[in-house]
Amino acid sequence: MTEPGATTETSPVRLREPANLVCPRARWMWLVEGIVQALLLGGVQVAWWLLDRRGPRDPHVLVAGVTGIVMLAYVVGMPLWRFRVHRWEVTPTAVYTQTGWISQERRIAPLSRVQTVDLTRGPVAQLLRLATVRVTTASAAGHLVVHGLDRDDATALVERLTVAAAAERGDAT
């Protein structure tokens, strides 16, 4: 008889929190991306203020103040929260991911369902030696993504997943 919570080869894989955090430098990537988003939103508000020639400026000041407070909280809080939430893990049978910060998602993809494994690096990620790994599966739910991995760790993960997926007997369909 097995213990409660133990899995056997015939029991299904349980959805659980993955074990690995992303690279701590990911907080800086998300901070820079948040600042860029805040600046773009600020630019839209300045354009609105300059183009709106009618009436008093009170609505502009009120909206700018509220937006400024919300964006400051976003820029400060979002990188820290995302770092606490984003996790990943690869087991001999599956890839686990947990993403998001307001809306969170946990996913498991059996290695037999993996079709492609991609490594991408945006401009900020390149400066911080970070990368994103995207695992495309034979699923209508789409791909699994792990943002903010150290570049060398991401490269090793891509190689590991590629070898593991190729060794699986499934047809990934």
Topology summary:
Layout: E1 20-21, H1 26-51, H2 58-85, E2 87-90, E3 94-99, E4 105-110, E5 114-120, H3 123-127, E6 130-137, E7 144-150, H4 151-167
Antiparallel strand pairs: 1-2, 2-3, 3-4, 5-6, 6-7
Helix pairs in contact: 1-2
Which percent band covers the strand fraction? Answer: 15-25%
CATH architecture of the largest domain: Roll
CATH topology of the largest domain: PH-domain like
Mean pLDDT: 86
Low-confidence stretches: 1-11
Fourth-level CATH superfamily of the largest domain: Pleckstrin-homology domain (PH domain)/Phosphotyrosine-binding domain (PTB)
How many helices in DSSP terms?
4
Broad structural category? alpha+beta
Topology order in helix (H) and strand (E) letters: EHHEEEEHEEH
Number of structural units classed as domains: 2
Describe the main β-sheet briefly: 4 strands, antiparallel
CA(first)-CA(last) distance: 34 Å
Rg, Cα atoms, Å: 21 Å
Record field, number of beta strands = 7
Q: Roughly what percent helix?
A: 40-55%
Spatial sequence of strands, sheet with the most strands = 1-2-3-4
Structural account:
44% of the residues lie in helices and 23% in strands. The protein is of the alpha+beta class. It folds into 2 domains: 28-81; 86-167, PH-domain like (Roll), CATH 2.30.29. Strands 1-2-3-4 form a 4-stranded antiparallel β-sheet. A 3-stranded antiparallel β-sheet has the order 5-6-7. The model is unreliable at 1-11 (pLDDT under 50).
